[in-house]
Amino acid sequence: MSWNKKIILSLIIGLLLSGIALYVTFKNIPLPELVGYLRTVNYWWAIPAVAIAVMTFLIRVVRWRLILNPVTKTGFWSAYHALIIGFMLNCLLPGRVGELARPAIFYKKKGVAFSKVLATVGAERVFDVVVLLLSFAIVLATIEISPTLDLTFGKYHLNKATLEMIGMTTLEVCLGLIACIALVSIRQSRRFIKRIILGLPHLLFFASNTFKEKIREGFCARLAHIIDNVAVGLDLLKSPKRVGLCLGLSVLVWAVAGFSYYVMAFGCPGIELSFLEMYAMMVILCFFISLPSVPGFWGLWEAGGVFGLLIFGVSVKEAAGFTLANHVLQIVPVIVLGLISSIITGVNIVQVAYTGIEEGHREKGARIEIN
Question: What is the pTM of this model?
């Protein structure tokens, strides 16, 4: 399947999931009540909330430069423009094209190898996932969950015991992920893991050689390639000190992001949560928007936000109103800043998106060697 077809498929799946999420989230909320709530919001609180949200991107730039430094030397603002344009494209285009925009910009502007910059973006995502999983487990273990909590979803119930189990499972997954990262970072163990992955089709003794080769190229080779990219990205840090610094910056990124949500809540009637509770809601929201969705994460963002707020006793109307208002205030500044950066740098965002897709397709199709 070509890369363009994959983006189209991603968009179709995203439309379906986003549509279902929007329907489920807002089906029981009369539109006049939702509009009425949005009119009661004190939007002056949006000013400090947006300013704090913008700070997260500045911290991301510091972290990315640290990872990017062994690949290419670049100034703060050069890295900022590439990063914010990438995030803007994620808000406007399907298939997470923005993740490919950053390496495409450096490839176009500086001739830096696309794959090397892409590896740094992958390393960033590894830090983000580790911090989100670990912090979610810690927050669920720390905050007080009402023993009377009982949210019903058809035949399923979400209560305190279920959330505690989710927290423990998340912690176990996080520790397992850290162990996997450690194994991938060691060359000898990485070679062993890749040999196992690439040898999996041979277990299908009942299948034809053609089918085995399709499995090898379609799944195993790509998984091995992802492992290589993660390893390259982590290898760029060179030392435990750099890894620790990147981990600390990742914690700061998400703490500041959570604080932006917390500040916005001051202007929203009925949203009276502690910082830790708001942070937990944000992490739940992030899990939702990691699924395929339309550009801008519409639908899944609202579903995740409402679901997270319902856990802490916020009414459906207030949860939906806050999540919708916060979504607009979080995403619009990113689009505006990205457009400003594209004008300042002279980057053609359509061309960059296309270059990213084409280079990403070549990268996916690259032959995997065991090393």
Answer: 0.81
